[in-house]
Amino acid sequence: MEPALLRIRSGRVPVSNRRGKVLVKRTFLLWAFILAVILAFAPDRAHADEITVAGSTASTPPAGITFAANSFSGTTSGGFAAFSNLGWYALSTSPGVYNGDVVNLVVTFALPSGISGGAASTFVANLFGNVNTTAQGGVTIAFTNPTQNFAFSNASGNGSFSFTVNSLSVNPGGTTALSGYVSSGSVTPVPEPSNKLLLGAGLLLIPFVRLRRLS
Known about the structure:
Blueprint: H1 3-9, H2 15-41, E1 52-60, E2 65-69, E3 71-75, E4 81-83, E5 87-91, E6 99-111, E7 123-133, E8 139-143, E9 147-154, E10 157-165, E11 168-170, E12 175-177, E13 180-189, H3 195-214
Antiparallel strand pairs: 1-3, 1-6, 2-5, 4-13, 5-12, 6-7, 7-8, 8-11, 9-10, 10-13
Helix pairs in contact: 2-3
């Protein structure tokens, strides 16, 4: 019987195989260390994306002032998006005298979904403004809580934005558009496996491939 067969049948492992397994273990530890370094120092590629904000407005002004509702939609650029027409305030030709009268503005958001982390498709924000008569007979509408901050969570990720409406003035018999803007808008996508993790998994497979060749 051949010497090699005698060694196998007697349960003895060839010296070359024992050395190979030791080498595989050392290689595994080396690649594990390299992977740890990669995960610790490689830059994270997670980034914030722009958001799309859409909705509609409604308002209840005092007598002598009317409001024409409007819808809005826009995508941020650098976290910012301006809206030049969120609706129109019109003042009658013979308005009364306003001294701190209150106007209520309701903004209903349809996008982004999941505002405040909820599952509702829309979210309503209430803003209030003070109406005062000017020396020229017109009015000014100054919102007391012009900026509203929102957070949302949906299938796209987690994000936030600020929505601000601008104060305005209306002349007798005139119409003025309500404007506003979104700032600090961003969404962080749901993380996906990064290239560095895939590389690390490949590195850890190398010792096992070598062990298979030696067996």
